[in-house]
Design brief:
54% of the residues lie in helices and 0% in strands. By secondary structure, it is mainly alpha-helical. It is globular.
Length: 162
């Protein structure tokens, strides 16, 4: 990749990230017409129930499954927070809404094209994956496992009382 592709703008986004965001905005109508299928992580498709048996019931196996779910779902609530600037994400979301708003009768188009059903199914799979990760981490905690299999210890935010 060229040096220019990694050059940062004033908000911390690289030229490559900006290009990807513009591409996502441009593809919004294809998603609404159900012509653009997002790849669903295999781990979510294979999950029958969040509470299916954990085999083998060992900290290392649980940690490996948690890591796989983290890769598919994004970081869990106890993951260390980064100071990433979310400006690009907010601009992309707003621009996608504007582009999507240009489609007449968008909600009807989404329903007829099957895009609405697909989005519901993706949400269901995501929720099932989040529930599985929470279940695994609860079992890991009960077994006395260490993070990342078990949740990181809760640390209260610093008090702002004076």
């Amino acid at each position: 990749m060229s040096h220019a592709a990694h050059a940062q703008d004033g908000n911390g986004a690289s030229a490559e990230e900006i290009g990807e965001a513009v591409g996502e905005v441009a593809l919004t109508p294809l998603s609404d017409l159900n012509l653009r299928a997002e790849r669903v992580p295999e781990v979510l498709l294979e999950l029958d129930s969040p509470y299916q048996p954990i085999v083998p019931r060992r900290c290392s196996a649980i940690g490996a499954e948690v890591a796989t779910l983290d890769a598919a779902l994004g970081p869990d609530a106890d993951a260390p927070q980064t100071e990433d600037d979310d400006t690009l994400e907010r601009v992309q979301s707003g621009a996608s809404s504007i582009v999507g708003g240009l489609i007449p009768f968008r909600s009807l188009v989404r329903e007829l094209s099957g895009a609405e059903d697909r989005e519901r199914r993706l949400l269901e799979l995501h929720i099932r994956g989040v529930a599985r990760r929470a279940y695994l981490r609860g079992v890991a905690s009960a077994l006395g496992c260490s993070p990342p299999a078990a949740p990181r210890p809760y640390v209260a935010p610093p008090s702002t009382d004076e």
